[in-house]
Amino acid sequence: MKGEIVCVKCSLEEGKAVRMRVKRTGVTFRTEEYIGYFRADLFECPECGAQVLANVGSEIVDEDFVTDFEFLPVGVWI
Ligand SMILES: [Zn+2]
What we know:
By secondary structure, this protein is mainly beta. Helix content is about 10%, strand content about 30%.
């Protein structure tokens, strides 16, 4: 169980722990609070399809790096 990710919504509906599965490891993402980017693992719920990023690593500073996901406010251009 340790380190696993459980979907609350689906677990309540199914009456058992519904674990999210690794969809892709080593995806990269950027958020507006940091200059650099982060690596993480992308998990997906097999029931509802909800996706989460977990096992987030340390910030990697490379402003020119093209990331998989950009979590930036609408209207911000970098
Ligand atoms: Zn779910």
